Amino acid sequence: MKGLFLLFTLSLSLSGNSFAYEDSECIVTRAAFDIGSGTTKMKVAKVDQCEQKIIEMLLEKEAKVPYKEELKQSEDNLIEKHVLNRGVDALLSMKTEAQAFSPSLYIGVATSAFRTANNGELAKKIIEEKTGIKIKVIDQVTEAQIGFAAASDLVEAPLDKIVVWDIGGGSMQMSTLTESKELEIYNGKVASVSFKNHIIENVQFKSLTETQTPNPMSSADYNLARRDAFAIAALTTSRKLRDKILKEDSVIIGIGGVHFYSIASNVSTNSYYTKDQVNNKIAENLGKTDLEIGGEYAATDLSNLVLVKGFMDALQIESVHVGNINLATGLLLAPKFAE
Questions:
Q1: Within a domain: 9
Q2: Structural domain tally of the chain?
Q3: Distances from the Cα of 13 to the Cαs of 18, 23, 107, 148, in angstroms?
Q4: What is the per-residue pLDDT for 23?
Q5: What is the pTM of this model?
Q6: Pair (187, 75) in one structural domain
Q7: Which band of pLDDT confidence, cut at 50, 70 and 90, is reported for residue 231?
Q8: Full residue range of the structural domain in which residue 268 is found
Q9: Do the beta carbons of residue 56 and residue 131 sit within 8 Å?
Q10: Fewest CB atoms less than 10 Å from the CB: which of 146, 189, 244, 337?
Q11: pLDDT surpassing 50 at residue 92
Q12: Helix/strand/coil for 37
Protein backbone atom coordinates (compact mmCIF):
# COMPACT_ATOMS: atom_id res chain seq x y z
CA MET A 1 0.00 0.00 0.00
CA LYS A 2 1.52 3.24 -1.22
CA GLY A 3 0.45 5.30 1.80
CA LEU A 4 2.31 3.06 4.20
CA PHE A 5 5.59 3.48 2.38
CA LEU A 6 5.34 7.23 1.99
CA LEU A 7 4.08 8.12 5.43
CA PHE A 8 5.57 5.74 7.89
CA THR A 9 8.14 3.45 6.22
CA LEU A 10 6.69 1.13 8.85
CA SER A 11 9.93 0.20 10.63
CA LEU A 12 9.19 -3.43 9.91
CA SER A 13 12.86 -4.43 10.16
CA LEU A 14 13.12 -4.75 6.40
CA SER A 15 15.82 -2.02 6.23
CA GLY A 16 16.64 -2.27 2.59
CA ASN A 17 16.18 -6.03 2.32
CA SER A 18 12.52 -5.99 1.28
CA PHE A 19 13.07 -7.60 -2.06
CA ALA A 20 15.64 -10.13 -0.85
CA TYR A 21 12.93 -12.36 0.60
CA GLU A 22 11.80 -15.47 -1.19
CA ASP A 23 8.08 -15.49 -1.95
CA SER A 24 7.43 -18.01 0.81
CA GLU A 25 9.07 -15.69 3.33
CA CYS A 26 7.14 -12.68 2.11
CA ILE A 27 3.65 -14.14 2.40
CA VAL A 28 2.26 -14.41 5.94
CA THR A 29 -1.20 -14.88 7.42
CA ARG A 30 -2.27 -12.41 10.10
CA ALA A 31 -5.37 -11.84 12.23
CA ALA A 32 -6.06 -8.24 13.27
CA PHE A 33 -8.71 -6.90 15.66
CA ASP A 34 -10.22 -3.43 15.91
CA ILE A 35 -11.83 -3.12 19.35
CA GLY A 36 -13.98 -0.08 18.78
CA SER A 37 -16.25 1.68 21.24
CA GLY A 38 -19.37 0.04 19.85
CA THR A 39 -18.25 -2.78 17.57
CA THR A 40 -15.37 -5.26 17.63
CA LYS A 41 -14.03 -6.18 14.18
CA MET A 42 -11.64 -8.87 12.96
CA LYS A 43 -9.91 -9.41 9.63
CA VAL A 44 -7.76 -12.38 8.65
CA ALA A 45 -5.68 -12.09 5.51
CA LYS A 46 -2.68 -13.28 3.59
CA VAL A 47 -0.26 -10.38 3.51
CA ASP A 48 2.82 -9.74 1.40
CA GLN A 49 5.07 -8.26 4.08
CA CYS A 50 7.72 -7.37 1.51
CA GLU A 51 5.45 -5.31 -0.73
CA GLN A 52 3.13 -4.27 2.13
CA LYS A 53 -0.13 -5.31 0.50
CA ILE A 54 -3.00 -7.63 1.25
CA ILE A 55 -2.94 -10.61 -1.09
CA GLU A 56 -6.17 -12.27 -0.04
CA MET A 57 -8.80 -11.44 2.56
CA LEU A 58 -9.67 -14.75 4.20
CA LEU A 59 -12.19 -13.85 6.89
CA GLU A 60 -14.04 -10.80 8.19
CA LYS A 61 -16.17 -10.76 11.33
CA GLU A 62 -17.72 -8.20 13.63
CA ALA A 63 -19.83 -8.15 16.77
CA LYS A 64 -21.65 -5.43 18.66
CA VAL A 65 -19.96 -4.80 22.02
CA PRO A 66 -21.23 -1.46 23.41
CA TYR A 67 -18.26 -0.41 25.52
CA LYS A 68 -18.96 3.32 25.16
CA GLU A 69 -22.67 2.98 25.79
CA GLU A 70 -22.12 0.92 28.94
CA LEU A 71 -19.33 3.26 30.07
CA LYS A 72 -21.80 6.14 30.02
CA GLN A 73 -24.04 4.16 32.39
CA SER A 74 -21.21 3.46 34.85
CA GLU A 75 -21.16 5.72 37.90
CA ASP A 76 -17.40 5.26 38.27
CA ASN A 77 -16.50 5.52 34.55
CA LEU A 78 -15.50 1.85 34.46
CA ILE A 79 -15.70 -0.85 31.83
CA GLU A 80 -17.86 -3.15 33.93
CA LYS A 81 -17.37 -6.89 34.16
CA HIS A 82 -20.49 -7.83 32.18
CA VAL A 83 -19.53 -5.82 29.09
CA LEU A 84 -15.90 -6.89 29.37
CA ASN A 85 -17.00 -10.53 29.44
CA ARG A 86 -19.14 -9.89 26.37
CA GLY A 87 -16.10 -8.42 24.62
CA VAL A 88 -13.90 -11.36 25.59
CA ASP A 89 -16.53 -13.83 24.34
CA ALA A 90 -16.76 -12.00 21.01
CA LEU A 91 -12.98 -12.04 20.56
CA LEU A 92 -12.68 -15.71 21.51
CA SER A 93 -15.42 -16.63 19.04
CA MET A 94 -13.67 -14.70 16.28
CA LYS A 95 -10.29 -16.14 17.16
CA THR A 96 -11.69 -19.67 17.02
CA GLU A 97 -12.86 -19.05 13.45
CA ALA A 98 -9.54 -17.43 12.55
CA GLN A 99 -7.55 -20.46 13.73
CA ALA A 100 -8.76 -22.41 10.69
CA PHE A 101 -6.35 -20.24 8.65
CA SER A 102 -3.38 -20.67 11.05
CA PRO A 103 -2.40 -17.00 11.47
CA SER A 104 1.17 -16.40 12.59
CA LEU A 105 0.06 -13.28 14.48
CA TYR A 106 -2.97 -12.17 16.50
CA ILE A 107 -2.93 -8.43 17.23
CA GLY A 108 -5.41 -5.70 18.01
CA VAL A 109 -5.97 -2.11 19.03
CA ALA A 110 -8.56 -0.60 21.37
CA THR A 111 -9.79 2.95 20.99
CA SER A 112 -11.90 5.65 22.64
CA ALA A 113 -13.77 3.69 25.34
CA PHE A 114 -10.50 2.19 26.60
CA ARG A 115 -8.74 5.57 26.45
CA THR A 116 -11.35 7.28 28.59
CA ALA A 117 -12.35 4.52 31.05
CA ASN A 118 -10.72 4.70 34.47
CA ASN A 119 -9.85 1.01 34.15
CA GLY A 120 -9.05 0.99 30.44
CA GLU A 121 -5.54 -0.43 30.77
CA LEU A 122 -6.66 -3.05 33.29
CA ALA A 123 -9.52 -4.09 30.99
CA LYS A 124 -7.05 -4.37 28.13
CA LYS A 125 -4.78 -6.64 30.19
CA ILE A 126 -7.71 -8.88 31.13
CA ILE A 127 -8.63 -9.22 27.45
CA GLU A 128 -5.04 -10.15 26.60
CA GLU A 129 -4.86 -12.76 29.38
CA LYS A 130 -8.18 -14.38 28.44
CA THR A 131 -7.81 -14.33 24.66
CA GLY A 132 -4.08 -14.52 23.98
CA ILE A 133 -4.40 -11.57 21.60
CA LYS A 134 -1.82 -8.77 21.87
CA ILE A 135 -3.80 -5.54 22.38
CA LYS A 136 -2.69 -1.92 22.49
CA VAL A 137 -4.79 1.06 23.58
CA ILE A 138 -3.96 3.71 21.00
CA ASP A 139 -4.34 7.48 21.01
CA GLN A 140 -6.26 9.42 18.37
CA VAL A 141 -3.16 10.37 16.41
CA THR A 142 -2.22 6.72 15.97
CA GLU A 143 -5.83 5.92 15.16
CA ALA A 144 -5.77 8.51 12.37
CA GLN A 145 -2.41 7.25 11.06
CA ILE A 146 -3.63 3.66 10.83
CA GLY A 147 -6.85 4.80 9.17
CA PHE A 148 -5.04 6.94 6.60
CA ALA A 149 -2.68 4.11 5.74
CA ALA A 150 -5.52 1.61 5.40
CA ALA A 151 -7.60 3.87 3.16
CA SER A 152 -4.88 5.30 0.95
CA ASP A 153 -5.36 3.05 -2.07
CA LEU A 154 -9.14 2.70 -1.91
CA VAL A 155 -9.45 5.27 -4.70
CA GLU A 156 -7.28 6.15 -7.69
CA ALA A 157 -6.05 9.45 -6.33
CA PRO A 158 -2.63 10.72 -5.23
CA LEU A 159 -2.01 10.58 -1.50
CA ASP A 160 -1.90 14.35 -1.21
CA LYS A 161 -5.40 14.63 -2.67
CA ILE A 162 -7.26 12.43 -0.17
CA VAL A 163 -8.93 13.23 3.13
CA VAL A 164 -9.73 10.22 5.32
CA TRP A 165 -12.79 10.54 7.58
CA ASP A 166 -13.16 7.94 10.32
CA ILE A 167 -16.19 7.95 12.64
CA GLY A 168 -16.20 5.54 15.56
CA GLY A 169 -18.43 5.07 18.56
CA GLY A 170 -16.54 7.50 20.77
CA SER A 171 -14.19 9.53 18.57
CA MET A 172 -13.86 10.97 15.09
CA GLN A 173 -10.70 11.50 13.07
CA MET A 174 -9.97 13.27 9.80
CA SER A 175 -6.52 13.12 8.26
CA THR A 176 -4.82 14.49 5.16
CA LEU A 177 -1.32 15.15 3.89
CA THR A 178 -0.03 18.71 4.00
CA GLU A 179 2.28 20.25 1.41
CA SER A 180 5.21 19.29 3.65
CA LYS A 181 4.02 15.63 3.52
CA GLU A 182 2.96 15.58 7.17
CA LEU A 183 -0.43 14.42 8.37
CA GLU A 184 -2.88 17.11 9.37
CA ILE A 185 -5.15 15.36 11.87
CA TYR A 186 -8.50 16.36 13.31
CA ASN A 187 -9.21 14.65 16.64
CA GLY A 188 -12.92 14.96 17.33
CA LYS A 189 -14.61 13.99 20.58
CA VAL A 190 -18.11 13.72 19.13
CA ALA A 191 -18.89 10.50 17.28
CA SER A 192 -21.65 7.91 16.85
CA VAL A 193 -22.56 7.06 20.46
CA SER A 194 -21.67 10.43 21.95
CA PHE A 195 -23.76 12.31 19.37
CA LYS A 196 -26.72 10.00 19.89
CA ASN A 197 -26.46 10.65 23.63
CA HIS A 198 -26.15 14.41 22.98
CA ILE A 199 -29.47 14.36 21.16
CA ILE A 200 -31.17 12.49 23.99
CA GLU A 201 -29.79 14.74 26.74
CA ASN A 202 -29.44 18.16 25.13
CA VAL A 203 -32.01 18.20 22.32
CA GLN A 204 -34.81 16.02 23.73
CA PHE A 205 -33.96 16.74 27.39
CA LYS A 206 -34.31 13.13 28.48
CA SER A 207 -32.27 11.10 30.94
CA LEU A 208 -29.79 8.56 29.61
CA THR A 209 -30.54 6.32 32.57
CA GLU A 210 -34.09 6.00 31.31
CA THR A 211 -33.68 6.45 27.53
CA GLN A 212 -31.15 4.76 25.25
CA THR A 213 -32.49 5.86 21.86
CA PRO A 214 -33.45 9.24 20.38
CA ASN A 215 -36.02 7.57 18.13
CA PRO A 216 -38.61 8.48 17.12
CA MET A 217 -36.96 11.80 16.21
CA SER A 218 -39.15 14.77 15.25
CA SER A 219 -38.37 17.39 12.59
CA ALA A 220 -37.65 19.86 15.38
CA ASP A 221 -35.23 17.38 16.99
CA TYR A 222 -33.51 16.94 13.63
CA ASN A 223 -33.13 20.67 13.00
CA LEU A 224 -31.57 21.26 16.42
CA ALA A 225 -29.28 18.21 16.21
CA ARG A 226 -28.15 19.07 12.69
CA ARG A 227 -27.42 22.64 13.87
CA ASP A 228 -25.24 21.28 16.68
CA ALA A 229 -23.32 18.95 14.35
CA PHE A 230 -22.80 21.85 11.93
CA ALA A 231 -21.44 24.02 14.75
CA ILE A 232 -19.09 21.30 15.99
CA ALA A 233 -17.65 20.86 12.51
CA ALA A 234 -17.33 24.58 11.85
CA LEU A 235 -15.75 25.41 15.20
CA THR A 236 -13.41 22.47 15.79
CA THR A 237 -11.87 21.62 12.41
CA SER A 238 -8.75 23.50 11.36
CA ARG A 239 -8.64 26.03 8.55
CA LYS A 240 -5.96 23.91 6.88
CA LEU A 241 -8.25 20.88 6.82
CA ARG A 242 -11.28 22.87 5.65
CA ASP A 243 -9.26 24.44 2.83
CA LYS A 244 -8.05 21.02 1.72
CA ILE A 245 -11.59 19.64 1.63
CA LEU A 246 -12.72 22.59 -0.49
CA LYS A 247 -10.14 21.93 -3.21
CA GLU A 248 -11.81 20.71 -6.38
CA ASP A 249 -9.55 17.67 -6.74
CA SER A 250 -9.81 16.49 -3.12
CA VAL A 251 -11.36 13.06 -2.50
CA ILE A 252 -13.10 12.33 0.80
CA ILE A 253 -12.82 8.71 1.96
CA GLY A 254 -15.07 7.45 4.75
CA ILE A 255 -13.80 4.47 6.75
CA GLY A 256 -15.19 2.48 9.64
CA GLY A 257 -18.61 1.00 10.30
CA VAL A 258 -20.52 4.29 10.53
CA HIS A 259 -19.68 5.26 6.95
CA PHE A 260 -19.77 1.78 5.42
CA TYR A 261 -22.68 0.12 7.23
CA SER A 262 -24.76 2.81 8.92
CA ILE A 263 -24.64 5.36 6.08
CA ALA A 264 -23.57 3.95 2.71
CA SER A 265 -25.29 0.57 2.89
CA ASN A 266 -28.57 2.30 3.79
CA VAL A 267 -28.49 5.11 1.23
CA SER A 268 -26.46 3.97 -1.77
CA THR A 269 -25.61 0.99 -3.97
CA ASN A 270 -22.38 2.63 -5.13
CA SER A 271 -18.89 2.90 -3.66
CA TYR A 272 -19.77 6.40 -2.50
CA TYR A 273 -22.72 8.31 -1.08
CA THR A 274 -23.89 11.88 -1.62
CA LYS A 275 -25.32 14.60 0.57
CA ASP A 276 -28.65 14.37 -1.27
CA GLN A 277 -28.87 10.65 -0.45
CA VAL A 278 -28.23 11.40 3.22
CA ASN A 279 -30.95 14.08 3.16
CA ASN A 280 -33.46 11.67 1.64
CA LYS A 281 -32.73 8.92 4.18
CA ILE A 282 -33.08 11.34 7.09
CA ALA A 283 -36.49 12.43 5.80
CA GLU A 284 -37.50 8.78 5.42
CA ASN A 285 -36.54 7.86 9.01
CA LEU A 286 -37.88 10.89 10.91
CA GLY A 287 -40.73 9.86 13.19
CA LYS A 288 -39.78 6.17 13.11
CA THR A 289 -39.08 3.99 16.13
CA ASP A 290 -36.05 1.71 16.43
CA LEU A 291 -38.26 -1.22 15.42
CA GLU A 292 -39.46 0.60 12.31
CA ILE A 293 -35.91 1.60 11.34
CA GLY A 294 -34.75 -1.95 11.97
CA GLY A 295 -31.38 -3.55 12.57
CA GLU A 296 -29.03 -4.04 15.50
CA TYR A 297 -27.82 -0.43 15.35
CA ALA A 298 -31.21 1.27 14.87
CA ALA A 299 -30.65 3.53 17.89
CA THR A 300 -27.74 5.27 16.14
CA ASP A 301 -28.55 4.90 12.44
CA LEU A 302 -30.59 8.11 12.20
CA SER A 303 -28.39 10.12 14.56
CA ASN A 304 -25.36 9.02 12.50
CA LEU A 305 -27.03 10.41 9.39
CA VAL A 306 -27.68 13.70 11.17
CA LEU A 307 -24.09 13.91 12.43
CA VAL A 308 -22.71 13.25 8.94
CA LYS A 309 -25.16 15.73 7.41
CA GLY A 310 -24.06 18.47 9.77
CA PHE A 311 -20.40 17.90 8.95
CA MET A 312 -21.05 17.65 5.21
CA ASP A 313 -22.95 20.94 5.30
CA ALA A 314 -20.36 22.78 7.41
CA LEU A 315 -17.34 21.51 5.46
CA GLN A 316 -19.10 21.63 2.06
CA ILE A 317 -18.61 17.93 1.35
CA GLU A 318 -20.79 16.74 -1.53
CA SER A 319 -19.87 13.04 -1.60
CA VAL A 320 -17.92 10.47 0.42
CA HIS A 321 -16.16 7.41 -1.03
CA VAL A 322 -16.47 4.33 1.20
CA GLY A 323 -14.99 0.88 1.57
CA ASN A 324 -15.10 -1.90 4.13
CA ILE A 325 -12.01 -0.51 5.84
CA ASN A 326 -11.30 -0.21 9.55
CA LEU A 327 -8.28 -0.20 11.83
CA ALA A 328 -7.91 -3.97 11.43
CA THR A 329 -7.11 -3.35 7.75
CA GLY A 330 -4.21 -1.09 8.68
CA LEU A 331 -2.95 -3.49 11.34
CA LEU A 332 -2.75 -6.33 8.83
CA LEU A 333 -0.21 -4.27 6.93
CA ALA A 334 1.47 -2.50 9.84
CA PRO A 335 1.47 -4.67 12.97
CA LYS A 336 4.06 -2.36 14.56
CA PHE A 337 1.17 -0.02 15.41
CA ALA A 338 -0.01 -2.57 17.98
CA GLU A 339 3.33 -2.84 19.78
A1: yes
A2: 2
A3: 9, 17, 18, 21
A4: 59
A5: 0.84
A6: no
A7: very high
A8: 160-322
A9: no
A10: 189
A11: yes
A12: coil
